Automatic annotation (TrEMBL):
Pfam families: LMWPc. Gene3D superfamilies: 3.40.50.2300. PANTHER family: LOW MOLECULAR WEIGHT PROTEIN TYROSINE PHOSPHATASE (PTHR11717), LOW MOLECULAR WEIGHT PROTEIN-TYROSINE-PHOSPHATASE ETP-RELATED (PTHR11717:SF31). Residues 5-147 form the Phosphotyrosine protein phosphatase I domain. It comes from Pseudobutyrivibrio ruminis. SMART domains: LMWPc. GO terms for molecular function: protein tyrosine phosphatase activity. This is Phosphotyrosine protein phosphatase.
Length: 150
């Protein structure tokens, strides 16, 4: 996937898993410059990062400064952009609602990296639940780096 120069993580309101994945992506060293952003699928108005996500990121040495959620738009899709979702239902929503979304440029994270399970939604859980989500995302994103550089 050497032609990919932009990755967008997309999920729910864009305040938890997508920005967490983006922060992890930025924290992992990679061989070539890849733009990484987070988007929400249902963003009525910009919202800050979920406080539990922020706490987990800080405790793991990651930072996402001045973050606010943004709606995924058709203009986000381009020839060299890969949109990655956390759940198959989110992927299907994108494929059905966005003209520029295709099977090739819209992928499910766990399938892309060969993991068995989707990334669970920690919403409403404890900080420990968000921490577990972080650990799962970190392992998957480390594998994603190898996929992108192959």
């Amino acid at each position: 996937m050497k032609n990919i120069n932009r990755v967008i993580f997309a999920s729910g309101s864009g305040t938890s898993r997508a920005p967490m994945a983006t922060a992890i992506f930025h924290a992992i060293a990679h061989d070539r410059p890849i733009i990484c952003e987070a988007r929400g699928l249902i963003v009525q108005f910009p919202e800050p990062l979920n406080q539990k996500v922020e706490a987990v990121l800080i405790s793991n040495g990651c930072k996402l400064s001045d973050y606010s959620s943004k709606q995924l738009m058709d203009s986000d899709f381009s020839e060299n952009t890969l949109v990655i979702t956390m759940e198959e239902s989110q992927r299907q929503k994108i494929l059905s609602e966005y003209t520029n979304a295709t099977e090739e440029n819209t992928r499910l994270l766990n399938e892309l990296v060969g993991d068995e399970l989707e990334v669970m939604d920690p919403y409403g859980g404890s900080v420990q639940t968000y921490g577990l989500c972080y650990e799962v995302l970190k392992a998957s994103i480390e594998k994603l780096m190898r996929v992108l550089e192959a």
